[in-house]
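Handout for the seminar on molecular recognition.
Each group receives one record of this type.
Step one: identify the two inputs.
Step two: read the structure output and locate the region that could contact FE2/S2 (inorganic) cluster.
Step three: write two sentences on what you found, then compare them with the reference statements printed after the record.
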Amino acid sequence: MRAFLPDYAIQAPGTLDEALRMLAAEPGAWTPIAGGTDLMVLFNAGRLPGRRLLDLSRIYELRGIEDDPSRLSLGSLITYTELLEQRAVHQFFPNLVKSARATGALAIQNRGTLGGNIVNASPAADTPPSLLAYGAEVQLVSARGSRWVAYDAFHQGYKKMDLAPDELVARIRLPKPQGLGFHFYRKVGTRQAQAISKVCLAAYARIQDRVVTELRVGLGSVAPVPLRARRAEAAVVGRALDALPIEEARRAVLEDISPIDDIRASAHYRQVVTGNVLAQMLKELGAARTA
Amino acid sequence: MPETITLTLQVNGARRTVDTHPMARLLDVLRDGLRLTGTKEGCGEGECGACSVLLNGRVVNSCLVPALQAQDGVVVTVEGLAEGEALSPIQDAFLVHNAAQCGFCTPGMLIAADDLLRRCPNPDKEQVQAGLAGNLCRCTGYSKIVDAVRSVARQGEVR
Amino acid sequence: MEVHVIGASTIRKEGRGKVMGSAAYADDVDLPGCLLGMTVRSRCARGVLKGITFLEGVPWDEITVVTAADIPGKNFVAGHVDDQPFLVPVGGAIAHAEQPVLLLAHADRAVAEKARRLVRLDVEELPPLLDIEEALACVRVIHGERNVLKEIRIAKGDPEPVFAAAAHVVEGVYRTGAQEQLYLEPNVMIGTVEHGPAGLEVTVSGSLQCPYYVHDAMKQLFGIPGERVRVVALEMGGAFGGKEDYPSVIAGHAALLALKSGRPVKIAYDREEDMAATTKRHPSRTRIRSAFDAQGRLLALDIDFALDGGAFTTLSPVVLSRGALHAAGVYRCPDVRILARAVATNTPPCGAFRGFGAPQSLFAIERHMDVCARRMGMDPVELRRLNVLRQGDTMATGQVMREDPGLEGLMDRAMAAIDYRALQKAYAVRNAWDDPVKRGVGLSVFMHGCGFTGSGEATMASVAGVEGRPDGTVAVLAASTEMGQGKNTVFCQIVAETLGLPVDMVDMAEVDTKYVPNSGPTVASRSTMVVGRILEDAARGLRLALVQGGFLAEPYDPEAFREAMRAAHLKLGSLKTYGQYRANPGFAWDDKTYRGDAYPNFSWACYAAAVAVDLVTFEVKVEDFATVQEVGRVVNPTLAAGQIQGGVAQGIGWGLWEEVTFREGRMANNQLTNYIIPTAADLPHIRVEFLEGGSPFGPGGAKGIGELPMDGPAPALLNALRDALGDLRLDEVPMTPERILNRLEEARHA
Ligand SMILES: Cc1cc2nc3c(=O)[nH]c(=O)nc-3n(C[C@H](O)[C@H](O)[C@H](O)COP(=O)(O)OP(=O)(O)OC[C@H]3O[C@@H](n4cnc5c(N)ncnc54)[C@H](O)[C@@H]3O)c2cc1C
Ligand code: FES
Ligand code: FES
């Protein structure tokens, strides 16, 4: 353990109000900590810059699930394991189930939270592509009030977010897909478990009369932020299932992404594999049963 | 701001208190504070699972849990698996099947295996893999560990 | 009474403590008053240390600081060549980026850690030499005249004229990367120094494979005789060769800090430091030129084998030797030339890792044989059948196969185990379908020389013993260490069998150089075969002593034996008998010419792998893996199978995923999140079959098994990938998804 303990402090407010007051009093002084599965790794390595931690884990307002007919709202402290225990998630958001199962291994799933995954803002995070595919929104709260932002506008640059220093992510809201839908999720890591994504793709498509009427493709690990493949989506929306422009979409997605070479994979590998996974998705979409 | 807190835990069935820095890792609280050295540190980054313990009924990497977050928690470590000198079924199976070679992954692996068998008494292959994938072992190639788990599974078989 | 202990799956001796969590590893030992030590490293691959500055921020007066100037004896780690300093002195050369420069200790680890960051080194940087090709090309010279740490030549006949006349000549170049041992327990060492009547007395204990290597290192570092050095091996959380030579460095550091502070000092590396600073498997490059006749009979081999030894000599000469001696594989070949070189680079020294050079050269030859078969339009299996060694054949050193290794039989069994031909047929059909997943099956045939190379054992002349205790139990006295491989259990089984006792009457004495003799290092798959046989002799000696002393009458039962030991103890005090290594009659080795019997024995094996490659992501899944080996007598089948399965897992990791990425001579992925070893979800259940052949040399006929399983997986996997993907340049491990993609693109453009 490389951290110098006396340099650090941690407090655990019991209510959201108290937490928001603390944040408001000294914006930027606090680093919120939820499950700690990102922060504690940095802490152990002696690389955690924030010295005062605000423990969110006892704030009940950030927990709980609201399931209404048109949407599902998840408290930001929901863990992967809790997500996997929700029937509504399995029923409406199978990609989220797959993301959760593909995240770390069990001990990480038991502690890591959805809010933490979002705010940690790793381009390689595994739930953001699913959240993008499902058109999620996030609720940000502060002593100043609360606001909802579309998740696809939340990440603004590498580790830059539409999140003020006095704000917390309170809830994540997902509209329930209506009608006939197609869901696809694939994470590409180097091993089967406990792997950081080299490419991750989630897609949700709505199909009407064998035509793709709506498509959202979320990508991870191929740009400084998790992002929508808007050009690829545009190439496909409005097309008939039996005439999906797979090669055109593959070309388009290369315009959407800007991968880099890093210790886990080369930019070239990421480009090729993103195209391949997209093509695989479109093949499966083309073969989707619509009756 | 207080330098230390008094942490109250239930560990392996007994109530324990220990004075600690609130950011100390649960792993260090157990090993240094309570001298329960069965729980190991293999990486300090959540990858190896040697530090696995049950916290409030779930497997966690104790190297990633700040003490404050464990306040009033219920912890089970490898030392809590046996009943006195009597090994638990999974410990016995690890012994008989040579699932512990160097033994360094074993405490964490046992916690994970025990948890797996409580959650799914008759796990299929995928469930065994998912249950153990967070615990790295460099000695066994996992084959003997899977054999041991299989031998304790309810039907004596991994489906 | 007949007791059969050898061949039984006796439960691991120290297993109970391991499953209870009570086994005490070095970091578990409670050491009141101890300080925690830290190492400041060079952080520059090549240069000259000009000075050291201590920045403000910690109470420096509370911190013990050790530099090279504090070393009482010689500032070199004892080894084959004394070229590795314990600490770089000011004014001294820096040869790699993880070189220890300065040591710190404090009672609070965090303070020591903070202090570590407050030491600034003033270094004059020089351009480094970073890989094999640069070193061989002498882009810069950092060692000797040609950057060569060690060179070995093996010759049989003259291949050159054969190439000119051969029907087929096939050439290939094969590469393997560095590999981290990744024992799950990082290095820990505890040092104490006392001022005894005769001078300094140094005691070190910790996680270490070879107590007497550390013993030698302490003698030299402190300039004191062996009686004043004590080395204790504690429970070890894995080693795989990784705790063979580096523990001497850490032990020296802990003891130096202990000397300076007057307190016990513990140095516990965390994972990041352990991965970055300690030894790895040597990266390799092998060039093979082979000649065949029109029928596919191997006529000549010309092999150029090169290893990257890193900055210092350490174990490179012996790793190189083993690599060279395995380079021609299991094939009969009349004319062979092998040139083997270990080169120096400005990277942390490479060291021992299960297999010790053999996995590198065997990967090359086993991959090459497949390439040759395809090139000649032959089935790789048939090409091997045609060329494998048989009784009476000679190996590259001239060693005659006194017995038939039965390699075709091994191949048959392995192919049956995995259903090789049926898979091949099914895959040929399915791979033509429009499915991105392509499957293949492949195999490798190989051997592993047991024990030290050549005259190594004779030179070492290891000693081991047994002690009859007053309570009627027997203790095994050997400096061989338990790292999970099962040595405790196997030794007890061997001694129990020899004495006709149940195995629970025998246990291991603590591995403490004060009490146990030098049975040699715990390496080279030698413990069971070599030390086991010495123990057999020692145990026979004990029985003989009891019988001749009139304490015991044969035949006896365990109770009578117990009584005899009690009685002997009353009369004689202590009751210890020893055995010493005896060379095998009729075996000869010449170190200068590299001719003769390189090993007393080989273990033989054939491994078969079935793989699936997904062409969407280029990921490889190992769907089945079958191992069949002839290792002589299997002393403990369950433990032996565990050794094989664990070794195969490491071999699969090396073949497919495990890549050490160096940047500027430093490991850049020194975290478990970036250095990818297999999890439970990545491996199939590994099949293990033993064929028990006879071996005249081991106890009850046992040979070595520890390293063998590391040799076969990588070539079997890549041969299977070739089967799945067609003609590709599969010449390197790890064959990561990125590499597969690159090779596929290369083939498409060609
Ligand atoms: C071994 C291991 C494997 C992993 N594998 C994966 C993987 O496969 N895929 C993957 O995506 N991730 C993975 N992770 C990363 C991590 O587990 C996830 O990102 C997790 O969701 C983080 O949640 P947390 O609650 O633990 O975050 P924390 O560490 O508590 O916090 C992370 C960040 O979010 C901020 N934060 C947390 N909650 C809030 C909130 N409500 N409002 C504002 N800010 C907040 C914190 O300040 C911090 O910056 C892995 C981590 C480890 C250690
Ligand atoms: S030490 Fe906690 S996961 Fe490795
Ligand atoms: S038994 Fe050694 S790491 Fe698992």
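Reference statements: The interface with chain A takes residues 1, 3, 21-25, 28, 44-47, 49, 52, 58-61, 63-66, 68-69, 71, 112, 115, 129-131, 133-135 of chain B (CB under 8 Å). Residues 1 and 30 of chain B are 24 Å apart (CA to CA).
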